Amino acid sequence: MKAKISSLGCFVPPRILTNDELSTIVDTNDTWIVERTGIRSRHIADANVATSDMAVRAAQEALRQRGIEASELDAIILCTVTPDMLFPSTACLVQEQLRATGAWGFDLSAACSGFVYGLTTAAHLVMAGSHRKVLVIGADTMSRIIDYTDRATCVLFGDGAGAFLIEPSEDGDLGYIGFLNEIDGSGANFLKMPAGGSRMPPSAETVANRLHFVKQEGQQVFKFAVRKMSDLCEKALEKYSLSASDVTLLIPHQANKRIISATAERLGLPESKVVINLDRYGNTTAATIPLATRDAVESGRLKKGDLVLYAAVGAGYTAGVNLWRWAY
Ligand code: UT7
Predict the structure, then answer these.
(1) DSSP secondary-structure letter at 186?
(2) SS3 of residue 115 by DSSP
């Protein structure tokens, strides 16, 4: 049995933070941010909004698009690195808010590769025949773990959520083709939130030293991402006897326009085959791929039968590629 993406929904908080506004908070400017990252603005959640709230909004939209009730869901996979709290899982909080009374679920922690790993997992649950409706949600409130005194990271991230419904595909030619996912823990130190876990529990000292915020060695991550994203895309295409010329759209994780352009160039894909929307959203971690997919669908760039190449690299390191033939 094959699995297909049958609907999607997204949510971004209404408040927009522009580069000019950021330049009043830290020593930065619009020119540097646009040239080095491609980002122009990002959405930021109000103080009373947490990851589960955005996840629920995205999920409700996906269910509405498909015309089904939350009670029909079999499972919820919630991809995030900014859960409402360490436990219970945000999947549980979302299940309760949605009243998804027939679903089990869990949080999936894979940072920027989270949504790709979630899609792989959901596809295999459906293909096994044991699940008929799996909701994959990517949701991150990055503004809660960003240090707005660190200009090297605070300009990069935004908040948002997106959800895909995965169901069995009646048409064998449409839906999930396959995956190539990897982790490489040798990169763990280059992008992390050091404190708050069992290694370094919260203390007055961890707070004073600003260790509950994202720490990144940007150039290390950049170099790894540029190499890994194109390598993995090439290997994944080869694994399924496809080539870059078969790809209708590359929908990559949105971290830096330069990473995306380098990947596209290495694969020989023209700009018309690459989705970039980080100018408006920044890096929303697990939400970038659904947000970019929604933009592609709404602008008419994605149609039934098209071959979609999803690719992501992130903290861990984590990296993943998924191939799907668009089904609606
Ligand atoms: O999604 C998770 C994975 N994460 C990523 O993919 C991020 C990967 N890394 C990157 O995208 C890039 O490394 C950054 C955008 C984070 C940084 O760009 P870069 O071209 O690697 O800059 P850099 O860190 O080498 O810094 C160059 C200069 C430095 O100044 P000096 O030492 O040359 O005087 C920085 O202090 O740019 C300075 N700089 C800034 N200047 C203005 C760093 N951040 C800023 C800023 N505004 N916001």
Answers:
(1) G
(2) helix
Check whether domain 2-169 has CATH 3.40.47.10, yes or no:
yes
* Catalytic-residue membership of 112: yes
Per residue in 118-147, pLDDT (tens digit) is: 999 999 999 999 999 999 999 999 999 999
* Domain-wise residue ranges, the chain: 2-169, 175-325
Using the structure block, give the residue that is written with the tokens 């895309």.
233
- Relative orientation angle of helices 257-267 and 218-239, to the nearest 10 degrees: 30
Residue 43 Cα, ligand 1 centroid: separation in angstroms?
A: 21
Q: Is 10 a catalytic residue?
A: no
Q: What is the tens place of the pLDDT at every residue in 31-82?
A: 999 999 999 999 999 999 999 999 999 999 999 999 999 999 999 999 999 9
Asked whether 155 lines ligand 1 (CB < 6 A), one says yes
Does the pTM of the predicted model rise above 0.85? yes
Q: Per the omega criterion (within 30 degrees of 0), is the bond before 88 cis?
A: yes
Of 36, 215, 216, best ligand 1 pocket probe by most atoms within 8 Å of the beta carbon: 36
Query: Nearest-CA neighbor of 84 among 135, 43, 120, 137?
Result: 137
3-state secondary structure of 278: helix
Cβ atoms 163, 134 nearer than 8 A = no
2-169 matches 175-325 in fold: yes
Mutate to test the pocket of ligand 1, among 30, 82, 222, 223 (most ligand atoms within 8 A of CB): 222
Length of the chain: 328
Q: Of 112, 154, 233, 256, which is the active-site residue?
A: 112
CATH topology of domain 175-325: Peroxisomal Thiolase; Chain A, domain 1 (3.40.47)
